[in-house]
Amino acid sequence: MIFLSGWSGFREIYPEISKKCKYIVPFEDEGFLERYLNEIKQEEDLIVGWSLGANLIIRELDRLNAKRIILIAPFFNFTDYVNKRAIDLMIRSFERNREKCVIDFWSKIGIRTDLQTKVSHSLKDGLIFLKERNNFNEVYHKRNILVIAPTNDRILPLNAFIEVYKRIFGSIIKIYSNHYIEESILERIIFDNI
């Protein structure tokens, strides 16, 4: 199993899940985009993606070999729901003080802010990436795809997740949660699917 996390979704926020799988944090280090596709293409069983990680999976859906995919808080184009100016403000905040920027983001999405982690400057590339358009083409597939839709998300609206669900021909579970879903709940969903 591979878990492709969201922006600043370090192992510290999902400590148990990160012990049980290959855990990848988008843009955690330089060269991420060149490397991640090869890693997720090798997985033949289950790939889980949260937020930015889900978007990266959607972009490569037709090239993946996994039989089962779980997409948590997925979206096609972030800027359809979040103004580019808000992303630019976040980039400027990150440039001024990247640790504070991550803590502020975590606070907004429901993650404990007392966690300690190293924040790499390459995370800025992830914010820039969120402004890019994804020209998703519907593809016929035989995968079992589950969309987890947080209904109390403070970043993206529920219709972002429903749009993904409708266009990828999957199943959907709605959960009363902010953008970050508590690890104990997520573990039950993921490991019940293994």
Automatic annotation (TrEMBL):
Source taxon at top rank: Bacteria
Gene3D superfamilies membership: alpha/beta hydrolase (3.40.50.1820)
SUPFAM superfamilies registered for this protein in UniProt: alpha/beta-Hydrolases (SSF53474)
Protein name: Alpha/beta hydrolase
Annotated source species: Thermodesulfobium narugense
Lineage of the species this protein comes from: Bacteria, Pseudomonadati, Thermodesulfobiota, Thermodesulfobiia, Thermodesulfobiales
